[in-house]
Amino acid sequence: MSATPGTKLAQEIHDEFLVCKICLEAYKSPKSLNCLHTFCEQCIENHILSESTYKKYTDYREFTCPLCRKRTQLPIGGVKKLPDNFLVSSLSEIVQR
């Protein structure tokens, strides 16, 4: 029994656009960076911590995107204050239906 075209499309959308490229799981609290890449809030938090321990003299107010290496300014208030990606959140809800 093969999957319906709609189910196949939903799976492709999920795999390509709704999975964090750090943890490889569905986004949890998706946050956008300046470069418009999106990651889970906790994944970005962990990335910043590992980057700052790796580069002892780094500026903690800025970090690099794990995919494209562009710099993003960390807002006052930390990762929680990065913009939410509402498109990813909404698309995820639709695909789950």
From TrEMBL:
<dbReference type="GO" id="GO:0005654">
    <property type="term" value="C:nucleoplasm"/>
</dbReference>
<dbReference type="GO" id="GO:0061630">
    <property type="term" value="F:ubiquitin protein ligase activity"/>
</dbReference>
<keyword id="KW-0479">Metal-binding</keyword>
<dbReference type="InterPro" id="IPR017907">
    <property type="entry name" value="Znf_RING_CS"/>
</dbReference>
<dbReference type="InterPro" id="IPR013083">
    <property type="entry name" value="Znf_RING/FYVE/PHD"/>
</dbReference>
<protein>
    <recommendedName>
        <fullName>RING-type domain-containing protein</fullName>
    </recommendedName>
</protein>
<dbReference type="InterPro" id="IPR001841">
    <property type="entry name" value="Znf_RING"/>
</dbReference>
<dbReference type="InterPro" id="IPR047153">
    <property type="entry name" value="TRIM45/56/19-like"/>
</dbReference>
<dbReference type="InterPro" id="IPR018957">
    <property type="entry name" value="Znf_C3HC4_RING-type"/>
</dbReference>
<dbReference type="Pfam" id="PF00097">
    <property type="entry name" value="zf-C3HC4"/>
</dbReference>
<keyword id="KW-0863">Zinc-finger</keyword>
<keyword id="KW-0862">Zinc</keyword>
<feature type="domain" description="RING-type">
    <location>
        <begin position="20"/>
        <end position="69"/>
    </location>
</feature>
<dbReference type="GO" id="GO:0008270">
    <property type="term" value="F:zinc ion binding"/>
</dbReference>
